[in-house]
Amino acid sequence: MAARAPAQRAAPGGAAKICQFKLVLLGESAVGKSSLVLRFVKGQFHEYQESTIGGNFSAFLTQTVCLDDTTVKFEIWDTAGQERYHSLAPMYYRGAQAAIVVYDVTNADTFARAKTWVKELQRQASPNIVIALAGNKADLSVKRVVEYEEAMAYAEDNGLLFMETSAKTAMNVNEIFLAIAKKLPKTDSRGPGGVAAPGGAQSGNVELKPDGAKAAGGKCC
């Protein structure tokens, strides 16, 4: 198991309000969606992560990101990538304010599938949804088949946030959620209450605070 990412410094002044947003992860099976969420919420990585989760279509977790004057609470829906579950996806991304579409940099088919998910979100999700593209497993550089420049060009052409990530090493995992938090509108301030997880859903609430010295975007190593 990889070591937990170092704690980041608290934002100065404290958060003045809380904004709550629904975020959904989409992508092919085995690209590392659940591993990204586990790394972000609990700072953990399991080499052999069970498919989402226990055979269910989705898992629900929560996490907060503290910006200078706002605490952003993410309600994270991690969905299964198997094709047989595709018809269920709209009920999860409907009403979502943000989405992370994940592909595996060592598998070109998952990148092609990610493009399909982006098109579907642009066509059927909320008009103002913030979409981020995550090229996961960037630690496996010797097996890379999807080049950074190709994915970046696609993201720029489609108005997406983009980072390459590694759930295993924690590279750019916090940063991609932070970039999303910064881009979301902060006009809808809510109290600490939120949408309850369905019966049997798993949730965690671990505070993550951005490090002002770290850039929110940029090419990963």
TrEMBL record:
Annotated region described as Disordered, given as residue ranges: 188-221
Any one annotated GO CC term: early endosome
Pfam families the record matches: Ras
Recorded catalytic activity of this chain's protein: GTP + H2O = GDP + phosphate + H(+)
UniProt-annotated location(s): Early endosome
Family annotation (InterPro entries): P-loop_NTPase, Small_GTP-bd, Small_GTPase
GO molecular function annotations of the record: G protein activity; GTP binding
BP-aspect Gene Ontology terms: protein transport
Keywords: Endosome, GTP-binding, Hydrolase, Lipoprotein, Nucleotide-binding, Prenylation, Protein transport, Transport
Domain of life: Eukaryota
Similarity comment: family membership: Belongs to the small GTPase superfamily. Rab family.
Matches recorded under PANTHER family: PTHR47978
Protein name from the UniProt record: Uncharacterized protein
Species of the source: Capsaspora owczarzaki (strain ATCC 30864)
